[in-house]
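Researcher: Good morning. I'm working through a list of sequences from a screen, and I'd like to move beyond sequence-only analysis. For each chain I'm collecting a predicted structure so we can compare shapes side by side. This is the next one on the list. No need for commentary yet; just the structure.
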Amino acid sequence: MSQRLTFGLGVASIVMAAAGILAPQAVAQELAPGVSCEGFSCRNDTDDTYRVESFVACSDGAGGMTIVTYARPHATTDLRFGCPSKTIPGKMEQQPPRLNPDGPGYVYPPPTLGPPEVKMTHPVLVEHRSAEIDNNPPQEPTGSAR
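Model: Good morning. Structure tokens for this chain:
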């Protein structure tokens, strides 16, 4: 009984450690006086707009990207990004044998390629790199096309 408990606790601690390694960092980081970022948002307690540059790494080898966020004065701004999906090619699948219509025995059809698997990825790391004053950020799209 005690061996099972010890094994169970060991497995649980390994799972918890792995989850901690893969979880995005959640420690507030001050990038400039009055500007700090934590996780996927940045807080600006100044009277200026700041251009914040961050790096986001995605799971399953989907890569990473540098993103720019404009932190408005006296506001909390969420980072806008999306991790790409990853397509895994289909696997070869053996088809079941069929009765041979032209004679005795069976026909063994060649294997066929199964459907691909599309896997959603998610952020595993965010690293906030810099914050610079930029009081002339680009205009955000209004949503209407002309």
